[in-house]
Design brief:
This protein is an alpha/beta fold. The chain has 18 helices and 17 strands. It has helices at about 5-15, 20-25, 40-45, 60-80, 110-115, 120-135, 165-180, 210-215, 220-225, 255-265, 285-295, 305-320, 325-345, 355-370, 410-415, 435-445, 460-470, 505-515, and strands at about 30, 50-55, 85-90, 140, 185, 190, 200, 205, 230-235, 270-275, 300, 370-375, 385-395, 420-425, 450-455, 475-480, 495.
């Protein structure tokens, strides 16, 4: 479908919509529970909300999700005058997964950055696009194009492909291309990029200048636009060093960032979503108006009560003439064009079946295994290492989207098979003196120690434990998340990682440790 065709059909739909139905198109709402209740039906009848996103709390199993998405599509389409909804999900990969069952569990973006292979990345996008489309979703809130530029970053981290704008642009674009070929749209996020975000007065700030932004954090978004991006999500990021005539506002509310930078300078004419759309010192009513005026098309408030307050504020301004129908139609037409394109993606989707998905996933994890250092030549494992102490960390869910991550580590299962004798222990990220002492005593009985590291650079007690173990026995640290852990681990330890803890990743690391596979990964950040 050409953009002209989508626009023509969008114009036709627009001409049949009431002002209230048009306003409803400006919202991406959430759902409480696993089915639409009376309150949901009432809100749809009153406010005609035109789009919805689901998260882990809504998702139980494949059949339930298909049924739920079918119900939501019918209810919202009826309330919107025949216009079907965007039904979106945040499924970024790695531990940032919304599904309590096994879809194609895409590894973290940093893992794909380490694999450094556009063909693999696009194939996994195709696999995920198929899975989401099969479940009734038509929009992925991803991929993440932010860069990982700081060891202290708790916002983006392994959600990024790395710290290189060129690599992030390349992999983000091909991943989205794969997702779309699988029948599901994409929303690149979080413009203009969190970067090395500093917290100033409680607000996330990217302190880049305009020139730094254009060659750094915003560069992947510019490349996505050049490649035909249909939707971009703005983040709650303030840019204090950007030339501005307005008060410091997050991108979601800023005319300078959305209007001047994204729309005018970078030439983006697709749909802009706002991630939350609020600032702590801005009311719902004012925030809705600022976002609308800045050039945001779809608001994604944090709760349904915020959606209602913002809808009412915009409705009042429309009635009073402070928003013209021409302005409203311009926003809504972009949304309707996007929906036409999403429907076309579904019609033209290319199927990928489970054996092929599994094959690409294994290939990705095997390509991602990265040997950061091995000064003592511990990899492949020494022939005389007959007895191992294997230590697996308890998952602490440090990322903002990790609420639905499962604490299922197979590190011990896979590594134990490499030795004649192995003792597997679990330990918290902040081990007590008693826990630490027990592990130090167990280490005395081992020939070699393998210890998993889950963001140890953020947990000093765990890092200390690794280094105390390293002083006792030859030690291999296995990075299950952040590569920044390596900087704090003693130089004598071998350090290897795939930056995720899925079973396929553990299998790939075991193959490298046994000498059956050469480590092929390239660290996608500057060496820690």
């Amino acid at each position: 479908m050409t953009y002209t065709d989508a626009r023509d059909h969008g114009q036709e739909l627009l001409s049949r919509m009431t002002p209230e139905q048009k306003l409803g198109q400006l919202f991406l709402i959430s759902l409480s529970g696993q089915e639409p209740d009376e309150e949901f039906l009432k809100n749809e009848a009153l406010y005609h909300f035109g789009n919805i996103y689901l998260s882990g709390q809504n998702l139980r199993g494949p059949e339930q999700i298909r049924r739920l998405n079918g119900q939501l599509r019918r209810i919202i389409t009826d309330a919107s005058g025949g216009v079907e909804p965007v039904i979106a999900v945040d499924e970024e990969g790695g531990s940032a997964s919304q599904f309590p069952f096994s879809i194609t569990r895409i590894p973290s973006n940093l893992t794909l950055g380490a694999a450094h292979d556009p063909e693999i990345t696009q194939a996994l996008g195709l696999a995920l696009g198929n899975d989401l489309s099969d479940l009734g979703f038509n929009m992925l809130l991803g991929p993440v194009l932010d860069l990982c530029r700081s060891h202290s970053d708790r916002i983006i981290g392994v959600r990024a492909y790395g710290d290189d704008p060129l690599l992030s642009a390349q992999l983000g674009v091909v991943f989205a291309r794969g997702v779309e070929a699988g029948g599901c749209g994409c929303t690149y996020k979080h413009f203009p990029g969190y970067g090395d975000a500093a917290v100033i007065n409680g607000v996330f700030c990217n302190t880049s200048t305009l020139d730094e932004l254009l060659t750094g954090d915003a560069y992947p978004f510019a490349q996505a636009i050049a490649a035909g991006a249909r939707s971009i999500m703005a983040g709650q990021i303030v840019l204090p060093n950007l030339p501005s005539q307005e008060p410091q506002l997050p991108a979601t509310l800023s005319r300078d960032i959305i209007g001047a930078l994204l729309r005018e300078r970078l030439g983006f004419d697709g749909v802009v979503m706002a991630d939350g759309a609020m600032a702590s010192n801005v009311s719902n009513a004012k925030g809705a108006m600022l976002a609308f005026s800045a050039g945001v098309d779809i608001l994604k408030p944090d709760s349904i009560s915020f959606c209602i307050a913002m809808y009412k504020a915009l409705h009042t301004r429309l009635q009073r003439g402070k928003i013209t129908m021409e302005e409203l139609d311009r926003h809504v037409l972009r949304i309707l064009c996007l929906k036409e394109q999403l429907a076309d993606l579904q019609k033209r989707r290319r199927a990928m079946f489970q054996p092929e998905k599994s094959s690409w996933l294994k290939r990705a994890l095997r390509a991602s295994v990265t040997l950061l250092r091995d000064r003592q030549g511990l990899i492949p494992l020494p022939a005389d290492a007959a007895k191992a102490l294997i230590i697996s960390p308890l998952l602490e869910k440090p990322g903002i989207l990790d609420d639905n991550a499962t604490d299922i580590y197979t590190l011990g299962d896979h590594m134990a098979l490499l030795f004649q004798e192995a003792e597997v222990r679990r330990v918290s990220s902040s081990p007590s003196p008693r826990e630490a002492q027990a592990l130090l005593e167990a280490a005395q009985q081992a020939d070699i120690i393998l210890i998993g590291s889950e963001d140890a650079h953020l947990h000093p007690d765990y890092l200390t434990l690794i280094n105390r173990l390293c002083a006792l026995r030859p030690t291999i640290a296995i990075l299950l998340r952040s590569p920044y852990d390596a900087a704090g681990i003693c130089e004598d330890a071998a350090v290897i990682g795939a930056f995720t803890h899925t079973p396929d990743a553990m299998e790939a690391i075991a193959l490298v440790l046994s000498g059956k596979l050469q480590p092929q990964g390239q660290l996608p950040i500057q060496a820690p």
